[in-house]
Automatic annotation (TrEMBL):
Coiled-coil annotated residue ranges, if any: none
Xref: Gene3D superfamilies: 1.10.1660.10, Cobalamin-binding domain, Methionine synthase domain
Protein name from the UniProt record: MerR family transcriptional regulator
Keywords recorded for this protein, A-Z: DNA-binding, Repressor, Transcription, Transcription regulation
Domain HTH merR-type residues, every copy: 15-63
PROSITE patterns the record matches: HTH_MERR_2
SUPFAM superfamilies associated with the record: Putative DNA-binding domain
Source organism per UniProt: Aquimarina litoralis
Length: 306
C-alpha cells in the first residue's frame, strides 16, 4: 500500500512534533520515547531548544511499525528490521480484512503531502476488492473522523482537510452519477436533500444521497445553504415527499428549535411532508416539536429506515 511513498513527493509539511506522531499513529508520546531510547527506532532531529522533530520518513516508518505491532509482532523484533524489511513484512501480512487500516495510513500521508497520485493509487487498490459502499464506510468514514480530531489538535491545517475531503467528494459524485442513470424502482416516495443556510458540510448528505439512490428511490439533491422559502415548490416533485437535512454547525443551538418549527410553517402549508434530520446540532432539539419530524443519531440508523 505504501509503494507510492518511495516516489519523490512535494513535501509541504516536512517536520512533525512528537505530539503530531502521537495523533497520527495512535501511539503515546511516552511509548515513542521508550522505543527511541530502548530500540533506537527513530532518530529525531533537535531544535536549538532541544525539542524533538521528526521527518516524513520517520512518520512513515512509525506508521508501519505501529501496524506490525497491532498485528501481533513484538516491538523488540520489529526494531531489528531495516526499513525495507519492515515494508516487506507489512506487505506480507496485509489481507482483505486488514487493508483498511493500511489504507487509512496511506491516505493520511496523501493528505499531509497533498499527494493526488497516492490518494488515487490507494483508492484503486481498495476498489479492486471492495464496493464503493464498503470503501466509504470502512475507510473514508474512519478517516474523516480521525481528520476531525487531527484538525482540532492543530496537527493538520484546514488546507489538509479541504484537500482530502474534496477528493472524497469527487469519488462520491462519480458513484452517485452512475446510479442516476438507473430508473427508480421504489416509487412510493421521493427525497429532497438540502442543507440549511450557511451550512456547507455536505459529505454526509452526499453519501446519504448515494444510499437513497442505491435503494432505488427518486431523489433531488439541492446541496448546501438552501433557504426554507425555496422548498415549497419542491412538493410538486412527488406526491409523497420526504425532506432530509444534515445539521453539522447550522442552525446554531439557540436557533435550531425555531428552524424546525419554521419548516412546518413555510414548507407544509399545503401538504404535510416528513422532515428527516441528523447531525450533531440535532442534540439541541427537544424532539417533540412535530409528529412529521424524525431524528437520526447516525447515517447508519437513517439507512436502516430506507
Amino acid at each position: 500500500m505504501f509503494n507510492y511513498l518511495n516516489k519523490k513527493v512535494n513535501n509541504i509539511k516536512q517536520n512533525f512534533s512528537i505530539k503530531d506522531l502521537e495523533n497520527l499513529c495512535g501511539v503515546k508520546a511516552h511509548t515513542i520515547r521508550i522505543w527511541e531510547k530502548r530500540y533506537n527506532l527513530l532518530s529525531p532531529n533537535r531544535t536549538e531548544t532541544n525539542i524533538r522533530t521528526y521527518s516524513l520518513k520517520s512518520l512513515q516508518k512509525l506508521l508501519n511499525v505501529t501496524y506490525l505491532v497491532n498485528s501481533g509482532y513484538k516491538i523488540s523484533r520489529v526494531s531489528k528490521l531495516n526499513n525495507e524489511e519492515i515494508d516487506e513484512y507489512v506487505r506480507r501480512i496485509v489481507s482483505d480484512t486488514s487493508t483498511k487500516n493500511q489504507a487509512i495510513n496511506s491516505l493520511k500521508i496523501a493528505m499531509l503531502n497533498y499527494d493526488l497520485q497516492l490518494f488515487l493509487g490507494t483508492y484503486e487498490q481498495l476498489a479492486e476488492k471492495r464496493t464503493f459502499r464498503q470503501i466509504f464506510t470502512d475507510v473514508f468514514i474512519p478517516l474523516l473522523t480521525e481528520i476531525g480530531l487531527l484538525w482540532q489538535t492543530n496537527t493538520i491545517s484546514p488546507s489538509h482537510e479541504h484537500f482530502i475531503t474534496n477528493l472524497i467528494k469527487q469519488k462520491l459524485l462519480i458513484n452517485i452519477e452512475k446510479l442516476q442513470y438507473s430508473k427508480a424502482s421504489q416509487t412510493d416516495k421521493a427525497f429532497i436533500l438540502f442543507l440549511p443556510e450557511n451550512e456547507i458540510h455536505e459529505l454526509g448528505l452526499l453519501y446519504i444521497n448515494y444510499e437513497i439512490l442505491l435503494k432505488g428511490y427518486k431523489a433531488i439533491y439541492l446541496g448546501p445553504s438552501i433557504p426554507l422559502d425555496s422548498l415549497p415548490n419542491m412538493l410538486t416533485f412527488h406526491e409523497n415527499t420526504t425532506f432530509l437535512s444534515y445539521f453539522t454547525v447550522r442552525p446554531e443551538k439557540d436557533k435550531i428549535e425555531d428552524y424546525v418549527q419554521k419548516f412546518n410553517e413555510v414548507v407544509c402549508t399545503k401538504r404535510e411532508s416528513e422532515f428527516w434530520m441528523l447531525g450533531k446540532q440535532t442534540m439541541h432539539i427537544s424532539k417533540t416539536s412535530a409528529p412529521n419530524h424524525r431524528y437520526f443519531s447516525s447515517i447508519t440508523d437513517l439507512i436502516k429506515e430506507l
